[in-house]
Specification:
This is FMN dependent NADH:quinone oxidoreductase. By secondary structure, the protein is α/β, with parallel strands linked by helices. It is 39% helix and 20% strand. It has a single domain, classed as Flavodoxin domain (Rossmann fold, 3-Layer(aba) Sandwich), CATH 3.40.50.360. It is globular. The mean pLDDT is 97. The structure holds flavin mononucleotide.
Length: 202
């Protein structure tokens, strides 16, 4: 049985391309593996609080106030979901060349020393090994090649964040050029759907 954690971060509601692609992906997974379990965190719909001076010690220190204890409880819950999953499916729209701030807030809660990574004499070490991730990246423009490739602050960041906690088996599925006319958009969505089906079939 596959245990899947879906983290959606689109702010566009049900019209979101990344959410729609992931919905189809999960339907196909379930058709092939009816026992698959799926936990969904939609941080675009229900955003997590940002870490602030009042709450930070809950994640990067020892909690001693109510706000810090609340941040610790949120971090504990998110890490438990992540730890329990074998496959992490992330819906990542490109916002201003990077990831959505709501998705960044999720990472800010799950990158926690002693829990998901640790510092060693040889440098930091990710503790969540043995997991796979699939990241659905939606973009209005084209960044996988061409002149805008240097502006892609999304995919390298996601690779770093996931790798930092030990998740290095990552498949990126990109739906690009969504804002470059209906034909380009439809072709991108079809190609992304095909890539998601190929992932399941592999
Ligand atoms: C706030 C905001 C910022 C965006 N910034 C970019 C950008 O920097 N580059 C780009 O190619 N598309 C950008 N887009 C377009 C989205 O990436 C595109 O619409 C994508 O489909 C959104 O994903 P979704 O359909 O899953 O919501 C932006 C969209 C929004 C709402």
């Amino acid at each position: 049985m596959t245990r899947i954690l879906v983290v959606n971060s689109a702010a566009t509601g049900e019209t979101s391309v990344s959410k729609t692609l992931i919905k189809g992906f999960i339907e196909t997974v379930r058709a092939n593996d009816p026992a698959a379990s799926v936990v969904t965190r939609d941080v675009g719909h229900e955003p997590l609080p940002h870490l602030t001076a009042a709450s930070l010690a809950g994640v990067r220190g020892q909690p001693s106030t109510d706000a810090e204890r609340a941040a610790r409880a949120t971090s504990d819950a998110l890490i438990a979901e992540l730890r329990a999953a074998d496959l992490i499916v992330i819906g990542a729209p490109m916002y201003n060349f990077g990831i959505a701030s709501t998705l960044k807030a999720w990472f800010d809660h799950v990158l926690r020393a002693g829990e998901t990574f640790r510092y060693t004499a040889a440098g930091p070490e990710g503790l969540l090994t043995g997991k796979r991730a699939i990241v659905v990246e939606t973009r209005g423009g084209l960044y996988s090649e061409g002149p805008a490739a240097v502006m892609d602050a999304q995919e390298p960041h996601l690779r770093t964040l996931l790798g930092f906690v030990g998740i290095t088996d990552i498949t990126f599925v990109r739906a690009e050029r969504l804002g470059m006319g209906p034909e380009a958009g439809a072709a991108a969505i079809n190609a992304a759907n095909d890539a998601l089906k190929a992932f399941i079939a592999a």
